[in-house]
Amino acid sequence: MPKIVDHDARREEIARIACEVVAAHGFEHATVARIAAAAGYTTGMIAHYYESKQQIILAGLRLMLKRIEDRLTHQRGHDGAGLLGVLSEALPLDERRFAECAFWMAFWGRVSADKEVRRLNAWVHREYLRVYARCFALHWPASTDWPKRVRDEALRSVVTFINGLTASVVTSPADWPPATQVAQLRLQLDMLRVRAETRTPRAAAQS
Known about the structure:
Mean pLDDT: 86
Oligomer: single chain
CATH class: Mainly Alpha
Distance between the termini: 75 Å
CATH topology: Tetracycline Repressor, domain 2
């Protein structure tokens, strides 16, 4: 009997390996031929699943977002400490997450030069905000009492902070051991909580 091929699984495998190739060699050098070689396929096989390198990278972006969302939304917590544990899942604390973050960095490096990449980056940013907003609602329930403007500011601040921390870790990993990354995230959340609570009318009226 002919071997049954799981085409969805193969598409995901190609996207995953493309992310690894981009992380290791950069966006420009992550050619279809190099991705095919790393996957153990011919370029013709790759073309059967993806029409272009751009499509492969888009699939890689979606795969990375799914991985991050799965990690963030399957953690459990109750308050600010719980949110810290959840959001720490987005940090490059181990080899696998470091590779994911290196992929993002390589992708971001193309944003200023490529209109299509800018469009994809805007989509990625919106997806990040959606996932992080869900984390806020689940693991920082006090934030639901904040004015929407204050909550949105805190959300965007967290996304910006984690992006910046990610860039720092990828470029200077020796300076950012896991404990330091988590400590800095804890400090950021503590400061945001205090600022948000002082700007919430009910909290101000009780003080």
